[in-house]
Design goal:
- By secondary structure, the protein is of the alpha/beta class.
- It folds into 2 domains: 16-249, Aspartate Aminotransferase, domain 2 (3-Layer(aba) Sandwich), CATH 3.40.640.10; 252-375, Aspartate Aminotransferase, domain 1 (Alpha-Beta Complex), CATH 3.90.1150.
- Helix content is 36%, strand content 15%.
- The strands form 3 sheets. The protein has an 8-stranded mixed beta sheet with strand order 1-9-8-5-4-2-3-14, sandwiched between helices. Strands 10-12-15-13 form a 4-stranded antiparallel beta sheet. Strands 7-6-11 form a 3-stranded antiparallel beta sheet, with no helix packed on it.
- Helix 1 (16-25) runs antiparallel to helix 8 (239-249), helix 2 (34-47) packs parallel to helix 8 (239-249) and helix 5 packs parallel to helix 6.
- The protein is globular, with a radius of gyration of 21 Å.
- Bound molecules: pyridoxal-5'-phosphate (PLP).
Length: 376
């Protein structure tokens, strides 16, 4: 039997061990040290725009701290893209706040600006203007930054950019992860680069970074004993994990090219088949890292998504439906939702295809083989 082909598996570059060895040699086996600072510097240089980066234990921790830094309180409304992974929304619940979910628009599959405005007006009509807008760069595709920023300014509501999946993407040559008032990147094992588990918060304002690091290291006030005036968290990144990240940063450009090459492979595979459409940048302003390549299947394909997935499973190839929208999740059944049925339709017809930067030519041939049996 052939080796299993995963949707998106970790891809080591070789340089990671040097940084990990350094951590061991210098006994920096702790949630601080030269690799943590080094990774932050690497990311600040890469992202540009004068951002400050705080390396944290996960993207989810970064989202949680973002809401804390914005002063979200019990009972507040927070707007959140519905079509996303649950980690975008869970921290709203950690805060005792209420998510207001918003549908996608068809170009990028990210926040629909019109529906965002409806959600803002809903909050205002209840006497509670939403405290933040959580927007996502889904599967690496940049969101409509200008439209969402305009709403953010008009109503004076900060944006938290969940760029967990979009390191290496850009819009009009500005890197994703620099668009929000606060932005979040994930280095989980399935992302474009990884620290095994980890993430970071990127901010324009140095005070936000300092406050994030303070809260992420148990909120110890400046005193000889441990003095606390606020509640802290244990959210800093391990210096060993940061060593993996430093090695991975050396490979980032290549990883982006590899994921984009996968996307071109699928484009060619589907080009004469109108029954399968690949999610692609709407205009040349958008540059996606194509973290995952995603196809939408139409009924003309003559086979259901479940049947197609079964054919991949038989060949030891992992595929997965698009994220199930949060407003359709049992755990969020009482949350408000604005928009129409676009995210629901995408969920019903969309399929995430193997997209790892480590796919080989023979892996691609196996994937093409399954499609060629069903595409006519
Ligand atoms: C992976 C992911 C997260 C969470 O990041 P972790 O580092 O796994 O905590 C949040 N949002 C989205 C869209 C993600 O894909």
């Amino acid at each position: 039997m052939d080796k299993k082909i995963w949707l998106s598996s970790p891809h080591m570059g070789g340089g990671e061990m040097k940084y990990i060895q350094q951590a061991f040699d210098e006994n920096w086996i702790a949630p601080l040290g030269p690799n943590v600072n080094g990774l932050e510097n690497d990311l600040e240089t890469y992202l540009g725009e004068g951002v400050h980066v705080a390396a944290l234990s996960s993207g989810t921790a970064a989202l949680h701290l973002s809401l804390i830094l914005l002063g979200v309180e019990t009972g507040d409304f927070v707007i959140c893209q519905s079509l996303t992974f649950s980690a975008s929304a869970n921290p709203i619940i950690y805060m005792g706040a209420h998510p207001v979910f918003v549908d996608s628009e068809k170009d990028t599959w990210n926040l629909c600006p019109n529906a965002v405005e409806d959600a803002i007006k809903f909050g205002i009509s209840k006497g509670k203007k939403p405290k933040a807008i959580i927007t996502v760069n889904l599967y690496g595709m940049p969101y409509k930054a200008e439209e969402i920023s305009a709403l953010s300014k008009r109503y004076d509501i900060p944006v938290i950019e969940d760029s967990a999946e979009a390191l290496g993407s850009s819009y009009k040559n500005q890197k994703c992860g620099t668009f929000g008032d606060l932005s979040v990147i994930s280095f989980n094992g399935n992302k474009i680069i990884t620290t095994s588990v980890g993430g970071c918060l990127t901010v324009k304002n140095k005070e936000f970074k300092d406050k994030a690091v303070f809260l992420a290291t148990q909120a110890k006030d400046n005193a000889p004993h441990y003095e606390h005036t606020s509640i802290g968290y244990n959210y800093r990144m391990s210096n060993v994990c940061a060593g993996i990240g430093r090695g991975q940063m050396e490979m980032l450009e290549e990883r982006i090219q590899q994921r984009r090459a996968n996307h071109r492979f699928y484009q060619e595979l589907f080009q004469d088949h109108l029954s399968v459409t690949l999610h692609t940048e709407p205009t040349a302003d958008y540059f996606s890292n194509h973290w995952l390549s995603v196809a939408c299947l139409s009924p003309e394909l003559g086979i259901t998504r479940a049947e197609l997935m079964e054919k991949f499973t038989e060949e030891e190839i992992e595929t997965r439906p698009i994220w199930k929208p949060m407003h359709l999740q049992p755990v969020f059944r009482n949350a408000a939702f604005f928009g129409s049925d676009l995210s629901e339709k995408l969920f019903n017809n969309g399929l995430c295809l193997p997209s790892g930067s480590n796919l080989s030519d023979s892996d691609r041939a196996r994937i093409a083989g399954v499609f060629k049996k069903v595409l006519m």
